[in-house]
Amino acid sequence: MEHLPLFINIKHRPCLVVGGGVVAARKVRLLLARGGRVTVVAPELDAGLQARQAEFCWLEQGFAEHHLDGQFLVVAATDNAEVNARVYQLANRRGILVNKADDSKRSAVIFPSIVERFPLQVAFSTGGGAPWLARLLRARLDALLPRHWGGLARVAGTLRRQVQQAFGSSDERRRFWARVQDDVTLTALLQQGDKAGAEAWLRQAMTKPLAGEVILVGAGPGDPDLLTIKALNELQKADVVLFDQLVSDEILALIRPEAERVAVGKKAGHHSVPQEQINQLLVEHALAGKRVVRLKGGDPFMFGRGAEELQTLKAAGIRYQVVPGITAAAGATAYAGIPLTHRDHAQSAVFITGHCKQDGEEPDWASLARGRQTLVIYMGLMRSAHIRQQLLHHGLDGNTPVALIERGTTRQQRVVRGRLQELAQLAERVESPALMVIGEVAALADSLAWFTPQADAAGIDTMERCG
């Protein structure tokens, strides 16, 4: 890319815009917003420029070379290609910064797309090659950047020296801002425009010790695009992340690069790190003053033992938060084209786990075997024969449709379908992690499936059926 990204101070500097149409109006608006002393050369102005005529100098005439005298920045924005080329050539010859609108190859400077939370600015460009992509990125960033961050940046600038004095190392300062940036009280003050109140709150916060905290974060069912904005924010503030095997590499790549990563290897049937040791690690890191993210597949409170971890933290007097995630029952079934409820087939959905504590009580199989409901079973592969036996014994029809969704929402997703009476055989063809769906709605995957994983592109049928 030929252009070097720079932020240029144009406040009170002379800027010339040649042209009076829609494109020129857009450039004039940007220059005025940043304090430029703008002159417009054009025989006539469009309605937008006319409405702001008092804010700039208008020379009601065609372009001449002497208009370049003393200019810091020049924009060629007429609808005449020859005039634009002449402006560019003359300005370039004089060494003046020049932008030829909609022609990045012949521009010394280009205007990037901007997302702004004054004084915070994010500017980016595709070099003029894909303006649609720049617009898409702008929309995404505009949605992601919290509205109060502009006020936060202003207050942070005012208190920068005091924060440096209060916290001796850059790591301590980073942890301080990570702790306070999304505090509900501070956010409310900033949103209300109460700068004095926000500064007072932050001064008080500086006097408090940097205590550790644990955030339980749901990573969702696998597709990184299903991660919540809050979850992403926490991953980028963490000092330490303890993660399970169910968390995908794409999501792990979003963790702050400097953060310590601890694989606790928790997955159905394979606990390389015992739960008690995981609890202890959370406590130890938090007591060391660190911001700890406990990253779990799906949702932390859906068969994820999140409540047990919070009970340990509460007993140790450690602060904690919970960031919900999309659970596999909602995510994997949606990607497989299986509605959890349907007016004609299922009026309720029941979530159960096939993996219980040793000597744990059996579920109420008689209730689970009722018709016109959907059973969604987590971690049920190893007990598939027992599940089939109990449901059949308590009266559920052996021809009831079932679906096993392997690695749901990911590019490796595979759906194996059949009947309840074949459940044990179907389970032998599926690898963990997999979700089990039992009920009439499972048959709708044939007609409602929409997700095309990468395997389809290779000619592999990712919807297998039996019976």
TrEMBL record:
This is Siroheme synthase. The lineage of its organism: Bacteria, Pseudomonadati, Pseudomonadota, Gammaproteobacteria, Aeromonadales. The active site is at D244, K266. Gene3D superfamilies: Cobalt-precorrin-4 Transmethylase, Domain 1 (3.40.1010.10), Methyltransferase, Cobalt-precorrin-4 Transmethylase, Domain 2 (3.30.950.10), NAD(P)-binding Rossmann-like Domain (3.40.50.720), Sirohaem synthase, dimerisation domain (1.10.8.210), Siroheme synthase, domain 2 (3.30.160.110). Keywords: Cobalamin biosynthesis, Lyase, Methyltransferase, Multifunctional enzyme, NAD, Oxidoreductase, Phosphoprotein, Porphyrin biosynthesis, S-adenosyl-L-methionine, Transferase. The gene is cobA. It comes from Zobellella iuensis. NAD(+) binds at V22, V23, P43, E44. Its EC number is 2.1.1.107, 1.3.1.76, 4.99.1.4. Signal peptide: none annotated. Transmembrane segments: none annotated.
